[in-house]
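Hey,

Quick one before I head out. I ran the complex with zinc ion overnight. Inputs first:
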Amino acid sequence: MLVEILGTAAGGGFPQWNCTCNNCRSVRLGKFAGKARSHLQVAISPDGIIWYLLNASPDLRSQIEGSFFLHPKGPGRSSPIHGIGLTSADLDQSLGVLLLREWQPLQIYATQSIRKILREDNNMFAMLERAADQAHWKNFLPGSTFELVAPNGKRSGIECTPVTVSTRYPGYVAAHRAKELVSEEAVVGLFIQSPSGKRLGYFPAVGHVNETLLQQFDSVDVLLFDGTFWTDDELIKLQSSGQTALQMGHIPVSSPGGSLDLLSKLKRPRKMFVHINNTNPMLDESGPEYAQVRAHGWEIAEDGCHLEL
Ligand SMILES: [Zn+2]
């Protein structure tokens, strides 16, 4: 299985359009010891011909254009992208679905609750279903393994097992609506098994980790994990108000009980942070936070990373 990491930033990208934090200012001044990043986007393929997207970022159009393997081939309109697996209804991970509305046959895999929020509560998503052979939503359940299958029925041999990692719905979902939905279907991570038998963990937003999940992490070859915030109070310090990382459904990297601590005993996986917020000081490769992450055996994924599993 080929794994292409096309973007690695959390919501807003890096730099973020309205942000003057140290990181964003330094990038604009050309003085940053690190890389700018587009919104998190991963594409996977069993053969380099048929591709599936893990979520769909607001930067998807430029990410597709910048990736020759995702360019259309053959006569007329024919994308190698055959489907999307959605792990949440967060805007930075689902807005890109709307960018794929040009009559392309697609399978969209999501929990029933994520589908309800996007498809039933947001009429714009009807643009994906103007024809019978356009987008088809496929429900999955946390804990139940499913195979990625192309709209023409061609099997990929790639199997996904979703796991609940947060019960928090996006801020745009009204409280009364969230109560109608299944809380375990709010945010999932995916264990993805390649036809080769190797395993990828895709966990870009993780609100809690229990002992079972920790053991499951040690069964993967590569773990792409939530690197959104360095500390729990990162945004509050910056803007003097707002929510903590944990309240937003993200375990911070550094704090006591943070991911460096929690996942320190993992032996098997190559560990890479993704979904990194522009405020996170570990983006600065000249700083102590970056050194600390590297010393703990983690990598900070960059746009353009390529893996084979
Ligand atoms: Zn910033």
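Residues 233 and 244 are 5 Å apart (CA to CA).

Talk tomorrow,
K.
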